[in-house]
Amino acid sequence: MTHRPRAQTRFGVTRALCAAGLVCAVSASAQARAEPVRAVVELFTSQGCGACRSADPIIRDLARQPGVVALTLPVTYWDYLGWKDTLALRPFTERQRAYARVRGARQVFTPQVVVDGSGFAVGSDRAALERLMREATQHGGLPIPVRGEIHGDRIAVEVGAAPELKAETRGDVWLVPVLRSRAIAIQGGENGGRTATYVNVVRGMQRLGAWTGQPTRFDVPCTLAEIADADSWVILVQGAAEGRPGRILGAAKGPGL
Question: Which residues of 144-161 are buried (b: 16+ CB within 10 A; e: fewer)?
Answer without folding.
Answer: bbbbbbbeeebbebbbbe
